[in-house]
Amino acid sequence: MSGYPFLTLTGTARERGYQYGSQVPELIKKNIAFYRTMFEGFGVPWETAGKISKKFEPFIRDYYPEALEEISGVAEGANLSYEDILTINCRSEILFAKPDGCTTFGILPEQSCDGHTYLGQTWDWLKPARDTTVILEVHVEGQPKILIAVEAGIIGGKGLNSEGVGVCLNALSTGKGGLGVPLHILYRAILAQTNTSNALEAVTQPQRAGCGNFAIGSAQGFLMCVEYTPENFDVLMPIDKPMCHTNHYLSPLFRPQDTFKRDLTETFVRLNRLERLAYGLKRPFTQKDMWRILSDHANYPDSICSHQDPKDPVTRRFCTIYTLVMDLNERTFCITEGEPCDQKISSYVLK
């Protein structure tokens, strides 16, 4: 099994949150300390971050009210303040438009050796996040069971559900944010759905607080990139090639407004390398092929498998925290501890 803590959460939203907080309180405190330092490094005191997070509360309540109950439970279980847990669940919106890197990769059933749909990604962020990652299996009455990788104290993340719906994410930006539903809450709503179109609706219907690309897949044989801003969205669905995405907009709707393409130029190199490796394979894909591609070191250290560059500022010293590959038909969730080139892979099955 993985070195990441594995928690099974059941019962009401408050009970699920309490179970979460009470089992990993020290990791949650460590995660809060990490973001407190980061926010303050960008000139946002923790108390100010808490006030900002409260502005998202009405939008969360209207969209997914159980999320706030779960957040309250986490705070109670960990013996921390509600505001602290709400703040880390809104962390992407509080530090809006700060670059990070991820590479997302999906395989349609007609491209795979076993007729299954695969979805995976590298998550590239700052190394302290590796020490606060946890795996949650969440049981909500009347909804699919979900299996997700999260930062301790955060209730939504990358993963899949028992209906074979999966989600990954690429950070994107147009330099504009607003009040709305934070992305970690959108994750949970996507995984509460039973099919691809409803998962798409979970992104397109609410007022969104920020920007990004949700890579959504289904065991029913669909993949899509849902690129979005607070005001608009576009849907890109592969037909005869693997789905590839990094950290710049691909839709013509948003390309002129993209700000990461200036601040994170490696995104173009990673996408080019990913497409060449993925499109160039002349036989059906295996899981080993996905791992090989996601472990690629071309343009090291700013490669698909990302490593810290000591020449970068500390706030830009990204590395692959983990890599995730999901077989949506088998409901299997495979995750690395650190960069995928180390091949420390642990597998989970959602039954």
Features:
alpha+beta, Penicillin V Acylase, Chain A, six-stranded antiparallel β-sheet, globular
Write the layout of secondary structure elements.
Elements: E1 6-9, H1 13-23, H2 25-41, H3 46-54, H4 57-63, H5 65-78, H6 82-89, H7 91-94, E2 101-107, E3 118-126, E4 133-138, E5 146-151, E6 158-161, E7 165-170, H8 183-190, H9 196-204, E8 212-218, E9 222-228, E10 233-236, E11 243-245, H10 260-263, H11 266-279, H12 287-294, E12 318-327, E13 332-336, E14 345-349
Parallel strand pairs: 1-4
Antiparallel strand pairs: 2-3, 2-11, 3-12, 4-5, 5-6, 6-7, 7-8, 8-9, 9-10, 12-13, 13-14
Compact overview of the structure:
With 351 residues, the protein is α+β, with helices and mostly antiparallel strands.
Can you name the CATH architecture? Answer: 4-Layer Sandwich
User: Gyration radius, to the nearest Å?
Assistant: 18 Å
Please indicate the count of domains.
1
Q: What is the fold named in CATH at topology level?
A: Penicillin V Acylase, Chain A
Envelope shape: globular
Largest sheet: 8 strands, mixed
InterPro entries: C45_proenzyme-like, Peptidase_C45, Peptidase_C45_hydrolase
Pfam family, one: AAT
GO molecular function: transferase activity
Keywords: Transferase
Descriptive report:
The longest helix is centred in the first third of the chain and has 17 residues, at 25-41. It is globular, with a radius of gyration of 18 Å. The mean pLDDT is 95. The protein has a single domain (97-349), classed as Penicillin V Acylase, Chain A (4-Layer Sandwich), CATH 3.60.60.10. It is α+β, with helices and mostly antiparallel strands and 351 residues long. It is built from twelve helices and 14 strands. The strands form two sheets. It has an eight-stranded mixed sheet with strand order 1-4-5-6-7-8-9-10. It is 32% helix and 24% strand. A hairpin with a 6-residue loop joins strand 5 (146-151) and strand 6. This is Acyl-coenzyme A:6-aminopenicillanic acid acyl-transferase. Keywords: Transferase. Residues 116-340 form the Peptidase C45 hydrolase domain. It holds the Pfam family AAT. GO terms for molecular function: transferase activity.
